[in-house]
């Protein structure tokens, strides 16, 4: 017999739980996808659950995603959902510590820093960092041809080295292994699910976070000050691009605002890209045929008659369909963010098509709930994707590939200007690893450039092997979906004869 809680029929069904305040915290926290898929079977696409005293309502599937990510600002609010987590880390006055209209303008400033010219300047710098890292930090050479590593740790280092060399600026790169590393570690220690659920605990990690926020913010302020004196030249980094930005009302972005945006960008890109590169390489180590395919693709596009490779360029990345498919497919199965939250600020009517067939009447998601989007559910839905649980980059390659067709079938092509540039609304798409709507990621192009360049370097120069008996499982206890115990080895590639 199905256990059920007594309920108000004007509200979504509530997931059964025994302990009132605790609710479904363990069930959801341990494996959110298992929780989402099992609850969808029982309750339909829209259901509520209790999470440590908060009322969460999940809206699944392309239409559910639209309800939340495409929601009007009069209905859903990201600031109210995130500010207690992000403001102590990023700092005041930016992102979720300001009205939404200001965030939209900040995103526009960031976008105008990620010009084609800027992106074109990044691959050589990224390649340079990769070369240095594999040869010197990992010490790979003819005399030490193989090394076993924790892949997540290795990729986290690669991502911070390459992001600091490009987006963050050369001063950050210079200190990235010194004082900056400590600030980052302490700040990151304050960006956890515990901080999300309990914003004000008297724990040492909270004090360390606050100290690190101030130190990190002052560190960027100093860079800006020095630059104003004209003592440092710089490349196409974000600090120089943000300097001089002015809001529509004529108020300029302050140096402190720039510092806080820089911290936000660091945090937004670091774990997402470390996780994505790690999962990609794990799958490649597991599928030597695809790894070989990528190597052949590198030879075809960059190979020179003397057996060496031409440098990766921003334009040439677009000529790597297999690379694109490999990253795209990894993001389908391992979207770094499993739950996207908004606070409901006025009742949201649920369209009848989203209610379970057993429901007699339509209902609302009431003001005060959090609405949860989980794009990963539609990205792994067997009703939408063939072999949804299997990593199949080929699905993106076939003529009008199965992957692309699945996306197009559901995606409205409507373009919409949220203030930071015209983007495909895409809020009803079954594929949204970068989110959708007004809060959609502005870092996608940078992330693809960074990931494709790093993976190109690895594929050209090294082979890989999984050093664990089975493919790593997923850790959902962190803010970002990470692999557990991802041990692999890199070996220097024997040059083709
Ligand atoms: C927003 C994913 C890399 C900057 C988002 C969102 C997602 C996402 C899902 C939407 C969040 C929401 O709706 O609440 C990813 C993935 C990445 C990545 C999968 C890499 C594989 C980056 C990078 C940067 C960045 C490298 C910076 C250069 C941002 C910013 C937002 C955002 C500024 C906007 C937040 C908002 O409007 O509320 N990202 N991201 N991301 N991301 Fe990314």
UniProtKB/TrEMBL annotation:
Q: Which UniProt keywords apply?
A: Heme, Iron, Membrane, Metal-binding, Monooxygenase, Oxidoreductase, Transmembrane, Transmembrane helix
Q: Which Gene3D superfamilies match?
A: Cytochrome P450
This chain belongs to which protein, by name? Cytochrome P450, family 51 (Sterol 14-demethylase)
Q: Family membership, please give it.
A: Belongs to the cytochrome P450 family.
- Which cofactor does this sequence's record say it needs? heme
Task: Specify the superkingdom.
Answer: Eukaryota
Extract the InterPro entries matched here.
CYP450_sterol_14alpha_dmase, Cyt_P450, Cyt_P450_CS, Cyt_P450_E_grp-IV, Cyt_P450_sf
């Amino acid at each position: 017999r199905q256990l059920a809680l007594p309920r108000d029929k004007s509200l979504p069904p509530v997931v059964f739980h025994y302990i009132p305040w605790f609710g479904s915290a363990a069930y959801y926290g341990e494996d959110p996808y298992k929780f989402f898929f099992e609850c969808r079977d029982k309750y339909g696409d829209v259901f509520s659950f209790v999470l440590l005293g908060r009322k969460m309502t999940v809206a699944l599937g392309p239409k559910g995603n639209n309800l939340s990510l495409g929601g009007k600002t009069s209905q859903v609010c990201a600031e109210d959902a995130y500010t207690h987590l992000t403001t102590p880390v990023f700092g005041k006055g930016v992102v979720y510590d300001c009205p939404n209209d200001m965030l939209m303008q900040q995103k526009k400033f960031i976008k105008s820093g990620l010009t084609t010219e800027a992106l074109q300047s990044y691959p050589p710098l990224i390649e340079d960092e990769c070369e240095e890292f594999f040869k010197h930090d990992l010490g790979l050479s003819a005399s030490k041809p193989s090394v076993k590593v924790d892949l997540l740790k290795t990729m986290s280092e690669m991502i911070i080295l390459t992001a600091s060399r490009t987006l963050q600026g050369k001063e950050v790169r210079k200190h990235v292994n010194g004082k900056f590393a400590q600030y980052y570690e302490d700040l990151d220690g304050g960006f956890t699910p515990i901080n999300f659920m309990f914003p004000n605990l008297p724990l040492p990690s909270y004090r360390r976070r606050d100290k690190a926020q101030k130190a990190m913010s002052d560190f960027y302020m100093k860079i800006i000050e020095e630059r104003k004196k004209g003592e440092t030249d710089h490349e196409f980094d974000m600090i120089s691009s943000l300097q001089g930005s002015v809001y529509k009302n004529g108020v300029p972005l302050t140096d402190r605002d720039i510092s806080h945006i820089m911290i936000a960008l660091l945090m937004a890109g670091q774990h997402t890209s470390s996780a994505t590169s790690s999962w990609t390489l794990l799958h490649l180590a597991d599928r030597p045929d695809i790894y070989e395919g990528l190597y052949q693709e590198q030879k075809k596009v960059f190979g020179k008659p003397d057996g060496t490779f031409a440098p990766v360029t921003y334009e040439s990345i677009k000529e790597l369909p297999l690379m694109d498919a490999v990253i795209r497919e990894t993001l389908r199965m391992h979207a770094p963010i499993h739950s996207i939250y908004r606070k409901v600020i006025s009742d949201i009517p649920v369209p009848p098509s989203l209610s379970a067939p057993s429901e007699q009447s339509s209902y609302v998601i009431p003001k005060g709930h959090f609405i949860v989007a989980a794009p990963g559910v539609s990205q792994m839905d067997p009703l939408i994707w063939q072999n949804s649980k299997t990593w199949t980059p080929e699905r993106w390659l076939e003529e009008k590939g199965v992957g692309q067709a699945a996306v197009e079938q559901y995606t409205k092509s409507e373009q919409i200007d949220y203030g930071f540039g015209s983007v495909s609304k895409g809020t009803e798409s079954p594929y949204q690893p970068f989110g959708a709507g007004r809060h959609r990621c502005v870092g996608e192009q940078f992330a693809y450039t960074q990931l494709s360049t790093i993976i190109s370097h690895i594929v050209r120069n090294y082979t890989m092997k999984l050093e664990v008996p089975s493919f790593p499982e997923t850790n959902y206890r962190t803010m970002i979906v990470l692999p557990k115990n991802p041990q692999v080895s890199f070996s220097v590639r024997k040059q083709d004869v």
